[in-house]
Amino acid sequence: MAGQDIQDSATAAAAPELKRTLGPWQLTAVGIGAIIGAGIFVITGKAAAEYAGPAVTISFIVAGFGCLFAGLCYAELAAMIPQSGSAYTYAYAAFGRFAAWIIGWDLLLEYGMSAGAVSVGWSGYLGSVMAKLGMPFPEALSKAPVAFDSGGHFVLTGAIVNLPAVAIVAFLTAFLVVGVRASASANGFMVLVKIVVVLLVIIFGLPLINQANLVPFVPENTGTFGEFGWSGVLRAAGVVFFAYIGFDAVSAAAQEARNPQRDLPIGILGSLAICTVLYILMSLTMVGLAPYPTLNVENPVTIAIQAAGPQLHWLEWIVDVGAVAGLTTVILVSLYGQTRIFYSMARDGMLPPIFAAVHPTYNTPARGTILVGIFAAFLGGVFPIDILGELVSIGTLLAFVLVCLGVIVLRVQRPDVPRPFKTPFSPVTPILGVVVCGAMMYGLPGDTWIRLGVWFGIGILIFALYGIRHAKQPAWTLWDDAPTK
């Protein structure tokens, strides 16, 4: 197929291609596997303790609406342009190569840094399990060696490296090199495990919530924007948005879907709907079981279970082990999504050909996968989860804004291109997606915006030195006069 060219036209016919092995249930599992993870198991506690209090439940609803609008837009573009690359591919189709590069570089924040961030949360829960077994990890080998103080300056923590975070990324990188079918099968099993854990917490924890922990539901603002009150709810929505990241990983698997026009919308919207309901109930359970100031820890679900008393002590082991399994799937899918986006960018000349080279035996972009794994392992081994998580959130929100705008642009520019799935109530739905996601971006801390600016400065420099000279008309283009500038 033309959309699977990874070299120039003279050699494309002989090049190995990605296999179409994923159906709707596997794609939905990919989405759920990416979504349910560090957001609910780690980030929720920080958002409640520092920004929203019990109203973090409202923050999840706000973030869920933003994802719903963006998800409907993703579904239209994924069915219309069934190619690997997620928002990068859609930006290329709607706005041209520079916008595509910007969004591709932005998606490195979402997937590459997400894998690193979640590996930090994975390390925390694994440390809890090992401590209960009487074999605790030394802090020097299980904590981030650097952090940011309240003034936004780098400080040393005294740790050497977060070794468990590095180890899990290395293991899953090797797993992905072997092949997507084996990865998808293992992902499906671990998705089942963590859904069971979440359901157990909701079913047994919700009836035990202490009403006093929910009053006041929206704590009074401290006088600073984003610290409780309704501005805190908005800021928390941007922070817990990290919990929803992943459904667009379904669209990154377009070239490995058996029937992308039908299966991609099912995978995107199905995984989003399931996770939104679970998140609302799970967050209400957590803030109802434990006073919200106590949840600013690496394992807030465990703390909430402990606060419920002896009735739920039997759940502690299940939660810790389930969190380890659940976070594993998030790292797996994050690494998977990033390698497929880099595959698409290299295929279009935006990145060096190494990222587009498909292994002749495993039929996976093996060398690109290894390089992405090294990057994610470095992030997980060195940085704390809060810094990585906020960068992931703002980068993903920007990607969602551009996807929503892409639906509007392509409806005007290319009204005759077949759309197996159409975003309902367009352009109202895409506009609402832009507004809600933009509002959540606005609510994030100023330091996060500065770091985003620095990141894009580096990206533009790379584009100027390499991408602009090597970019070519993509082989997957659905029309001859697509924008390239």
Give me the secondary-structure topology.
Layout: H1 24-35, H2 38-52, H3 56-80, H4 87-95, H5 97-132, E1 146-148, E2 154-156, H6 163-178, H7 180-205, H8 229-240, H9 249-252, H10 260-289, H11 300-307, H12 315-347, H13 366-382, H14 385-413, H15 428-443, H16 446-470
Antiparallel strand pairs: 1-2
Helix pairs in contact: 1-7, 1-10, 1-12, 2-8, 2-10, 3-8, 3-10, 3-14, 3-15, 4-5, 4-14, 5-6, 5-12, 5-13, 5-14, 5-16, 6-12, 6-13, 7-10, 7-12, 8-15, 10-11, 11-12, 12-13, 14-15, 14-16
Write up this protein.
With 485 residues, the protein is mostly helical. The protein has a single domain, classed as Up-down Bundle (Amino acid/polyamine transporter I), CATH 1.20.1740.10. Helices cover 65% and strands 1% of the residues. It contains 16 helices and two strands. The protein has helices at 24-35, 38-52, 56-80, 87-95, 97-132, 163-178, 180-205, 229-240, 249-252, 260-289, 300-307, 315-347, 366-382, 385-413, 428-443, 446-470, and strands spanning 146-148, 154-156. The protein has a two-stranded antiparallel ribbon. The two termini are 25 Å apart. The model is unreliable at 1-16 and 480-485 (pLDDT under 50).
Search tags:
485 residues, Amino acid/polyamine transporter I, two-stranded antiparallel ribbon, 65% helix, disordered C terminus
Order of helices and strands: HHHHHEEHHHHHHHHHHH
Count of discrete alpha- or pi-helical segments spanning 4 or more residues: 16
Q: Into which percentage range does the β-strand content fall?
A: under 5%
Major pleated sheet = 2 strands, antiparallel
Structural class: mainly alpha
Give the beta-strand count. Answer: 2
Strand order of the largest sheet: 1-2
The CATH topology is given as Amino acid/polyamine transporter I
Which segments are poorly predicted (pLDDT under 50) over 5 or more consecutive residues?
Answer: 1-16, 480-485
